[in-house]
From TrEMBL:
<dbReference type="GO" id="GO:0003951">
    <property type="term" value="F:NAD+ kinase activity"/>
</dbReference>
<dbReference type="InterPro" id="IPR002504">
    <property type="entry name" value="NADK"/>
</dbReference>
<dbReference type="Pfam" id="PF20143">
    <property type="entry name" value="NAD_kinase_C"/>
</dbReference>
<dbReference type="InterPro" id="IPR016064">
    <property type="entry name" value="NAD/diacylglycerol_kinase_sf"/>
</dbReference>
<keyword id="KW-0067">ATP-binding</keyword>
<dbReference type="Pfam" id="PF01513">
    <property type="entry name" value="NAD_kinase"/>
</dbReference>
<dbReference type="InterPro" id="IPR017437">
    <property type="entry name" value="ATP-NAD_kinase_PpnK-typ_C"/>
</dbReference>
<keyword id="KW-0520">NAD</keyword>
<protein>
    <recommendedName>
        <fullName>NAD kinase</fullName>
        <ecNumber>2.7.1.23</ecNumber>
    </recommendedName>
</protein>
<comment type="similarity">
    <text>Belongs to the NAD kinase family.</text>
</comment>
<feature type="binding site">
    <location>
        <position position="159"/>
    </location>
    <ligand>
        <name>NAD(+)</name>
    </ligand>
</feature>
<feature type="active site" description="Proton acceptor">
    <location>
        <position position="51"/>
    </location>
</feature>
<keyword id="KW-0418">Kinase</keyword>
<comment type="function">
    <text>Involved in the regulation of the intracellular balance of NAD and NADP, and is a key enzyme in the biosynthesis of NADP. Catalyzes specifically the phosphorylation on 2'-hydroxyl of the adenosine moiety of NAD to yield NADP.</text>
</comment>
<dbReference type="InterPro" id="IPR017438">
    <property type="entry name" value="ATP-NAD_kinase_N"/>
</dbReference>
<keyword id="KW-0808">Transferase</keyword>
<feature type="binding site">
    <location>
        <begin position="162"/>
        <end position="167"/>
    </location>
    <ligand>
        <name>NAD(+)</name>
    </ligand>
</feature>
Amino acid sequence: MTHVTPPPAPPRLAIVAADTPEALAAQARLVARWGQHPPETADAIVALGGDGFLLETLHRCVERGRPIFGMNCGSVGFLLNDFHEEDLPWRVAAARTVILHPLRMRATTTDGAVHEALGINEVSLLRQTRQTAKLRITIDGIERMSELICDGAIVSTPAGSTAYNLSAHGPIIPLSAGILALTPISAFRPRRWRGALLPQKATIVFDILEVPKRPVSAVADSTEVRNVVRVEIAEDQEVSLTLLFDPGKTLEERILKEQFEP
């Protein structure tokens, strides 16, 4: 007698959507077609929306550890797969994984409180008023710049290097490069300083100078802390986030391709 191995069961999916008509309508169709499981018991989470919603979903799922397969129902969709309703469970089962380690921001405010947040794309420092910010930059305990006068600064992961970092004329970083980008925003002094590439394990500290006159906020993705006096940033290797991509369209491939786009 010939024994036939049954095909593996399709993964159990939790389908979540951004609060937009397009994403909510897509969610209703997919749930009707493929079913719905709670995120706590699902094998994977399907996120429908844009890049911002995918980041929100990643932040909400840090503790759950579930892989996330994003499908674009937004505008750019750099971190998402193309939207198709057909064969969704099998697309998820065949997807390639990308493991991301976010940045951990520890921001101390003028009242002495310490606020922590994760930045999957980047951590940004931004001036709060018409006055430029004045920042002192220390890398791994060594002062590298005594005073940077600017609108702000960005510390970007490779995954976030094509987002705000690129808009501020920072470099695109391949996922496997093992480095972070430190990019100034509208640097006034030193006028021609374009930033630095830092080891992935570096600890970056910004001390804000002239705090009462030049208040600064710190933002880890969408979490903002205002009136900071000191911001410490380092990659958190203890936190692993899993993204799923269709074969041939992985995040690594997209980042490499972006460097050759006109």
